[in-house]
Amino acid sequence: MTRIKYSKYSVLRWLPKEHKYKKYRLPVGACIYSDNMDRVVSCASCGNKIKYGDSYTSRQIHTELGIGFAVCYECYKKEFKEAE
């Protein structure tokens, strides 16, 4: 198992069961936008490496303006289940 390196930046993570936001530290390499779909980024939730073009926009991890970070498919599915 690879150890995740975290960024010094914190953003907001929505906690659906608690109906509140919590500060959240991003894995190094997480991003909200790239014009290069082949760029390798970190999933903002689990830290796994993914191509930006294969990522999904997080419903829970975002900036204060509501712009979601890139997450992998597995984490995206978990976010939907947690919201039910």
Taking all Cα atoms into account, the compactness measure Rg is 12 Å
Overall number of structural domains: 1
How many runs of DSSP E, i.e. beta strands?
6
Q: Helix content range of the residues, please? A: 10-25%
Q: Globular, elongated, flat, extended or rod-shaped: what is the shape? A: globular
Provide a count of the helices. Answer: 1
Largest sheet: 4 strands, antiparallel
Outline the structure in words.
The protein has 84 residues and is mostly beta strands. The chain has one domain. Helices cover 13% and strands 42% of the residues. The chain contains one helix and six strands; from the N terminus they run E-E-E-E-E-E-H. It has one helix at 73-83; strands at residues 6-15, 20-27, 40-42, 49-51, 56-62, 68-71. A four-stranded antiparallel sheet has the order 2-1-5-6. A two-stranded antiparallel sheet has the order 3-4. The longest helix has 11 residues, at 73-83. The protein is globular and about 35 Å long. The termini are far apart.
